C-alpha cells in the first residue's frame, strides 16, 4: 500500500471512537470482567515475560549503589518492590533495562541479575561519550556480567554526533557478533532518528534491533504523524527488527486501558508478525501510573478490541522475548515450546 493511501486510511481509522463517550472507572472494571477472561485461559500455559522495565536503588540502598550526579528517581523502583509486583501480576520473567538514574554504573542491576538469574535478563546502557572506551564498556557487562542486550539512547551521544558515528557503529556491529539485541530509545520520536536506524540496519543486518515504546509514536492525528507511523511499519522489511508494545500510558492519548492503541497494535502485528512484537510495562513508572498488574491487563483489553488470535497474544506476552534470549527462562511452560502456528 502506498504511503499516502495508508496515511489516509489511518487518519480515518484512528478518528473512529472505539467506545463513544468517556469511560468511567466502573465501566473499565466491567470491560475487564468481560474482556480479559477469554484470554487468561489461553495464557495459562505460557510464561508471561515483561520485555521492558527498570529498577534502581532505594534511598536506603543509595549509599552502596549511588545515583548518577543530578539524577533522583521520581518513584520507588527497587528490586524488592519489583518482586512484589511480579508476584501479584503473575509475571514470570523480565528484561531489566539499565536506568538513567545510575547511568553507566550497572552495579545495582548486576546484583539483581546474580540474585535471580532465572527471572531476569539484563540490558546494559551504551556509553557513546568521548574517550574511545565505549566499545569496551559495552563488552564488559556482556562478557563478564552476562548482560544480553544493550540500549542506544541518542541523547547520550556528544552534541552534533549521530548513532552512526565510529563508536555507534562499533558497538552495533559487535552486538551483532555477540548476538546481543540493540534497543533504541527515541524519546523525541523515532522519525528524528529513522535515517540512523535504517543505516545501521542496512550496514549490519545480523544485529537484532528492538524499537522501544513503539518509537514514541502516539495514535496519529494528522498526515505528518501518520507518515512517521508508516516509517515504523516499513522497518518490518528488516527481518531482525522487533517492536516493543510498551510504555502504553505514555504513547496513548487516553487513560487506562489505552484503547486508542488498538489500531496501532493491529497494524504493527500485521506488518511485523506477532513473533516480532513484545509487551513491556516500563515498570516502575507503570506501577505508579495504573498499577503493574493493570499494565499487563491493558494489553489483553487492547488485544480483545482487535480480536487478536490467542496464539498472537501468546507471542506478544512472552514468547517473542523468550525466543530472543534462548535458554534464559529454561523452565518455560509448554506454550513456549510449540512451533508458531
TrEMBL record:
Does this entry carry the keyword Lyase? yes
Which branch of life, at top level? Eukaryota
The family note in this entry says:
Belongs to the metallo-dependent hydrolases superfamily.
Domain called Amidohydrolase-related: residue spans: 49-325
Question: Single GO molecular-function term?
Answer: hydrolase activity
Q: Any idea what this protein is called?
A: Amidohydrolase-related domain-containing protein
Q: Does the keyword Lyase apply?
A: yes
- Keywords assigned: Decarboxylase, Lyase, Signal
Signal sequence, renumbered to the chain: 1-25
Name a Pfam family for this protein.
Answer: Amidohydro_2
The protein's organism comes out as Glycine max
Amino acid at each position: 500500500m502506498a504511503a499516502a493511501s495508508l496515511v489516509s486510511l489511518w487518519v480515518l481509522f484512528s478518528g473512529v471512537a472505539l467506545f463513544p463517550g468517556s469511560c468511567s472507572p466502573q465501566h473499565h472494571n466491567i470491560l475487564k470482567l468481560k474482556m480479559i477472561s477469554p484470554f487468561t485461559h489461553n495464557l495459562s500455559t505460557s510464561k508471561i515475560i515483561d520485555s521492558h522495565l527498570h529498577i534502581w536503588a532505594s534511598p536506603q540502598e543509595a549509599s552502596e549503589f549511588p545515583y548518577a550526579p543530578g539524577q533522583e528517581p521520581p518513584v520507588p523502583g527497587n528490586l524488592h518492590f519489583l518482586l512484589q509486583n511480579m508476584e501479584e501480576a503473575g509475571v514470570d520473567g523480565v528484561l531489566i533495562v539499565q536506568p538513567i538514574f545510575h547511568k553507566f554504573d550497572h552495579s545495582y542491576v548486576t546484583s539483581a541479575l546474580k540474585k535471580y538469574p532465572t527471572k531476569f535478563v539484563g540490558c546494559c546502557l551504551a556509553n557513546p561519550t568521548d574517550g574511545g572506551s565505549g566499545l569496551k564498556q559495552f563488552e564488559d557487562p556482556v562478557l563478564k556480567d552476562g548482560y544480553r542486550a544493550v540500549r542506544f539512547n541518542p541523547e547520550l551521544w556528544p552534541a552534533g554526533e549521530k548513532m552512526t558515528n565510529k563508536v555507534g557503529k562499533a558497538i552495533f556491529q559487535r552486538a551483532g557478533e555477540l548476538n546481543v539485541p540493540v534497543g533504541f530509545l527515541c524519546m523525541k520520536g523515532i522519525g528524528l532518528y529513522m535515517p540512523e536506524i535504517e543505516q545501521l540496519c542496512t550496514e549490519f543486518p545480523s544485529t537484532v534491533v528492538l524499537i522501544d515504546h513503539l518509537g514514541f509514536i502516539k495514535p496519529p492525528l494528522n498526515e505528518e504523524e501518520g507518515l512517521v507511523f508508516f516509517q515504523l511499519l516499513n522497518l518490518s522489511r528488516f527481518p531482525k527488527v522487533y517492536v516493543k508494545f510498551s510504555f502504553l500510558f505514555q504513547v496513548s492519548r487516553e487513560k487506562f486501558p489505552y484503547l486508542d492503541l488498538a489500531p496501532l497494535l493491529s497494524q504493527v502485528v500485521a506488518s511485523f508478525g506477532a513473533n516480532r512484537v513484545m509487551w513491556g510495562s516500563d515498570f516502575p513508572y507503570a506501577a505508579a501510573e495504573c498499577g503493574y498488574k493493570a499494565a499487563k491487563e491493558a494489553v489483553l483489553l487492547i488485544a480483545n478490541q482487535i480480536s487478536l488470535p490467542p496464539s498472537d497474544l501468546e507471542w506478544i506476552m512472552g514468547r517473542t522475548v523468550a525466543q530472543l534470549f534462548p535458554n534464559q527462562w529454561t523452565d518455560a511452560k509448554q506454550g513456549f515450546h510449540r512451533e508458531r502456528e
